[in-house]
Amino acid sequence: PRDGAPPALSFAQQRLWFLDRWQPQSAFYNIPSALRLTGPLHLSALQSAFDELIRRHESFRTTFQDGPEGPVQLIHPVLTSPLTLVDLRELSSEQREPEALRIASDEARRPFDLAHGPLLRTTLVRLDVEHHVLVVVMHHIISDGGSSEVVLRELAALYDAFLRDEASPLPPLPVQYADYAVWQRSWIQGNVLDAQLGWWRQQLHGAPHALRLPTDRPRPALQTFNGALLTRVLPRTLSEALRAFHRAEGVTPFMTLLAATQALLHHYSGQDDFTVGAPVSGRTHAGMEALVGFFVNTLVLRARFDPRISFRELLAQARESTLGALAHQDVPFEKLVEALQPERDLSRSPLFQVMVAYQQDLHVEQALPGLITRPVPLDGQGAKFDLTVSFTDTNEGLRASFEYNTDLHDEATVARMADHLSGLLTDVIAAPARPLASLSLLPGQERHQVLVEWNASDVAFPQNLLVHQIFEAQVARTPEAAALAAGDDTLSFQQLDERANQLAWHLLSLGVGPETRIALCVEHSFDLVVSMLAVLKAGGAWVPLDPTLPADRLAFMLADSGARVVLTQERLKSVLPAHAGPLVCVDADWSQVASRSTQPPPPRSLPDSLAYVIYTSGSTGRPKGTLLTHRGLSNTALAAVREHRFDSSSHVLQFASIGFDACV
Asked: Which CATH number fits the domain that encloses residue 264?
């Protein structure tokens, strides 16, 4: 009974009221639909039909405001929502259709005022005498998908009656949505709530709070709702095979499609345990079926995998979890979140991030008597979750719609996911007993691309040329071109080669032979490149010692590598540990080096000879010296030139540490 006080909101309404206060003037929770009407339309009968709908359903006459103990519903005895007529006949025939679609999209995105209403908006766009577009927009706080079906069904009955000057054929409604809201709050409490929540606590105990699908971009710190929609209709043969599969396995279409989507998400994420959401109509009593209101609830369905599980076993798990969730669906999702208190993460929706839905197609072709009606697709209003996969049974086949967050996913990524789901469905219904781990998501063409085309990386390179010989060939081609620049100073290729040759002869005089290890502790300068080339020309292998490293690290690498000679600069001698072998300062001692020949020494190395030694970081134990050969160095150098398309106009900044491969 109504006691005279404004009724409280249902739990679902209260969440939307809060979200509207948090983000006012948002159209995110609009429910828009549009129909193309062809034939003789009676405007007065249509307006009268909407007037009767508003009179009949309190939801259309409800607004919301704060009360002493929280928000309340204000149910107005009368609240008008006139049918707005927009006549486009003054435009050219080519302009009318685009303008009608623009108006429909604008209406879909125009926000509502929950405090003042009305929360139903109707617009009729007239293209010519027998062609109209009807746009109906409701706010989710008074409506849901089931309500849209009620509105369409009752609108057709009322329009037909008013065309014939008859009274409404619809029986009076015994209860209204506000009655349901009051009943829900009085029933879902105490022992009833505890019993229902106990099942959910057991079902979701230990479930991870996030499904970590790979994304095209980093996840924003705050959850965003920018979205787009991609739709595919599965081939008719696959759609018919799915219907036969449901019957043979004794499951509903939703259970099969849920299990297939879970298998897809498992392959994509690599997670063996995760949850997805699923909408349920929430109309659990006969008295709710004819009402307009926000009844839909969200269930949380858990999937668990092991390497041996087959699709048939996953399907049985999906069946069990779905039936259990439906038996405990009276717990509002808001109450579930409140009770479970999941880990707070402002970048994700709580409990799940992917929604899976299934529905029968809403047939609207003969919705209004005397008119041919067709649905008009409207621009997406965003994405409530990271991903929503909706399946709709249509006459053309099963339609799969992917609503995705555009801040996370690209259209191409979602399109590939849709292809993978289609292929997965084909495979699992053909062989439901196969282990899921043995299934491949990749269709033949993509599989060939990944395994063959992307791995066709063989490129010929000079197998028997050493890297300093490749450099010498470049010197012969462009001797006067600038090879190095530092500030205002430059070295040509010929000058660089001659200096490296002189230092190589000097190293040979110190007893350097094939694969002799030479410690190299030099700052970024011409001396660095001269020294590297000289060591290679002398047949040795350099061991880079970054002068910024701690003294004990330098001492370890010097001792562990067994370096015979040290190349350094005068100002760095103080950072080097004591060393028994020769030490050459390539700046201060250059007068001795400059007396050597500028011609290259004869080759002293083979392609598989040691070229340099790079030490690991040692973060997981003692640092280890990694041995790199001339063949690998030549291949890497030529690949870099090719990959980055270096030419004579290229400029490359040498900023990497000398102890890092990028320096080479």
From this structure: 3.30.559.30
Q: Is 617 in the same domain as 638?
A: yes
pLDDT tier at 457 (50, 70, 90 boundaries)?
A: confident
Q: What percent of the chain has pLDDT over 90?
A: 79
Shared domain for 152 and 275, answered yes or no, is no
> Which residue's structure tokens are 């040691």?
610
Contact 600, 470 (CB under 8 A): no
CB atoms within 10 A of CB 27: 16
Q: Check: CB of residue 163 under 8 Å from CB of residue 370.
A: yes
Decide: helix, strand or coil at residue 347.
coil
CA 274/CA 267 separation, integer angstroms: 12
Measuring CA to CA, which residue among 15, 356, 296 is closest to residue 145? 296
- List, for residues 363-422, the tens digit of each pLDDT value: 766 678 889 999 898 865 689 999 999 999 988 899 999 999 999 999 999 999 999 999
pTM to 2 decimal places: 0.71
Helices (H), 130-278: 145-163, 177-187, 190-204, 236-249, 253-269
Determine contact, residues 125/132, Cβ cutoff 8 Å: yes
User: Could you tell me if 423 and 506 lie in one domain?
Assistant: no
Is 3 part of a structural domain of the chain?
no
- Main-chain dihedrals φ then ψ at residue 113, nearest 5 degrees: -110, 105
Of how many residues is the chain composed?
Answer: 664
The two three-digit tokens of residue 220, written as one number: 């924003």
CA distance 486 to 282: 73
Our separate counts of H helices and E strands in the chain read 18, 21
- Give the C-alpha separation, 559 to 547, whole Å: 16
Query: Structure tokens of 145?
Result: 């998908």
Query: Where do we find the tokens 């606590």?
Result: 201
Our count of domains for the chain comes to: 3
Range of the domain at 569: 467-663
Residues 346/222, Cβ–Cβ less than 8 Å: yes
pLDDT band of residue 449 (cuts 50, 70, 90) is: confident
